[in-house]
Amino acid sequence: MRTDIVHIGAGELTYEIRNIVIVGEKLQKLGIKTYWENIGDPVAKGEVIPDWMKEIVVDLVRENASYGYSPTRGVLETREFIAAETNRRGKVQIEPDDILFFNGLGDAISKVFGLLRRTARVVVPTPSYTTHSSAEAAHAGDRPVTYLLDPKNQWYPDLDDLEKRIKYNPAVAGILIINPDNPTGAVYPEHILCGMIELARRYDLFVICDEIYHNIIYNGQTTVPISDIIGEVPAIVMRGISKEMPWPGSRCGWIEVYNGHADPMFEKYIQSIVNSKMVEVCSTTLPQRVMPRVVKHPEYKNYLNERIRRYERYSNIAHDILKKVDGLLVNRPNGAFYMSVVFAEGRLSRRQSLAIATPEVRSHVESLVNQPGVSLDKRFVYYLLGATGVCVVPLSSFATELQGFRMTLLERDEAKFTMICETMARAVEQYLAS
After folding, report:
1. Rounded Cα–Cα distance for residues 320 and 136 (Å)
2. Cα(331)–Cα(18) distance, integer angstroms
3. What confidence score (pLDDT) does residue 280 get?
4. Which residue ranges form the domains of the chain, and what is each CATH number?
């Protein structure tokens, strides 16, 4: 074309969590039975939505108001409910107008990063959930600025590294925190979070905190919402219903703005996000109306707790099986429903492989692993998929140089989940020995 139409950050928009599905579906057609451990969709993994929850949706579907536009910021009743829940803790006070709904957190992330000045950077964790790191990098047209999560210290943020990234990069305007974390499953203790907020205060930054998994914590771990410790620091907190209820297909998420009027520049930035949403008119009405009724239902806590107990049990099954494998660094996840496993440095090479019985499958996998630029952990992931049908995500796709893989804890059949973990353990042993 006579004029370049491609956004400068287009090359940073990658999502290996779904890209690997294309490979898996190709191998399925070649006869491979696939175990999808790549994407965090409880419904796709067989989560049964209880009848009482469906009845709430059905009742609201019958109401005419569910078919109309909502206010731009979101349904007032729902925003009042959320604000009251936050204010009940007494640490920070927000108004319903400090809440803004989006069509899923993917929509929120796109706007929160996309409406920043191009030269303003948000330092993100490494590893980092791909939607965040890709959106931040795409808005700037450059690689993400990252701070380390330490796999040798329960995946906790390295505060010294974070301060260096801030101190020596004056373009950094904000800090991204994901707690509980995706992809690692780490849950940050209060003192770690306080250290991060103190850095934001000291260097005059704002905070973005993704808390979509905040109510999915187990193994005796505890944390606090950012609202408890934010003080006077400007912040955006992200939440949604896709993981807890779970209703990922609703595409319903929101941001809560803390100290939105404390800084004129931050206030103007938040208003630009509101204005952008106003151009779209609003987010989908039905799930916004459903959310408070589900959360207030007498069966909701029991339903969520049953799921949390299952994730806790599975986190220990996966940890106990994989930690025995020489060459792997394994941390037990304590929140969300993901687990990231790291290969010990120097244990992967381009000579390694797994035996694949079907010639067509072997040929396809070898064509993939021999492509230029394929990382060492992606080679393993392709061989694992071709040899066993287990589909995981290479850890290097989460904005990190660490080599490993991320799996989920969502399989409902415990015997099947145990089999999948044992299959992966054997495959790693065979791959490293090849």
Report:
1. 36
2. 24
3. 83
4. 10-47+301-433 (3.90.1150.10), 67-296 (3.40.640.10)
Q: Any idea which residue has 């799930």 for tokens?
A: 287
Please report the pLDDT score of residue 139 as a whole number: 85
Asked if 400 and 182 touch (Cβ cutoff 8 Å), the reply is: no
Distance CA 307, CA 309 (A): 5
* 414-422: Cβ within 8 A, 24+ apart: 414/313, 414/314, 414/317, 416/35, 417/314, 417/317, 417/318, 418/317, 418/321, 420/35, 420/37, 420/390, 421/317, 421/318, 421/321, 421/322, 422/321
* Cα Rg, the chain, nearest whole Å: 22
Residue among 205, 143, 140, 147 nearest 181 (CA): 147
Number of Cβ atoms within 10 Å of the Cβ of 204: 10
Q: Can you give the pTM of this predicted structure? A: 0.92
No. of helices (H) and no. of strands (E), the chain? 13, 14
**pLDDT tens, 210-242?**
999 999 999 999 999 999 999 999 999 999 999
- Does the structure show a pLDDT above 70 at 266? yes
Distance CA 103, CA 116 (A): 19
Write down how long the chain is: 434
Q: Are 434 and 352 in contact (CB under 8 A)?
A: yes
Residue 392 has pLDDT above 70, yes or no: yes
Q: Which residues pair with 124 in a beta bridge?
A: 146
Q: Give CA–CA dist 46/252, Å, rounded.
A: 21
Residue 214 parent element (H or E): none
Sequence-ordered list of residues with C-beta below 8 angstroms from that of 21, at least 6 positions apart, any chain: 36, 38, 39, 391
- In angstroms, the CA 135 to CA 113 distance is 6
What is the average pLDDT value for the chain, to the nearest integer?
A: 91
The 3-state DSSP class for residue 14 equals coil
Contacts 24+ apart (CB under 8 A), 297-304: 297/52, 297/53, 297/56, 299/50, 299/52, 303/50, 303/53, 304/215, 304/216, 304/244
CB 223 within 8 A of CB 217: yes
| Burial (CB count <10 Å: 0-12, 13-18, 19+), residue 1 | exposed
Q: Which two tokens stand for residue 158?
A: 């390295």
Residues 88, 94, 96, 97: what is their CA dihedral angle, to the nearest 10 degrees?
Answer: 180
Classify residue 382 by burial, with Cβ atoms within 10 Å: 0-12, 13-18, 19+: buried
Q: By CB neighbour count within 10 A (0-12 exposed, 13-18 middle, 19+ buried), where does 398 fall?
A: buried
Q: H/E element holding 18? A: helix 16-29
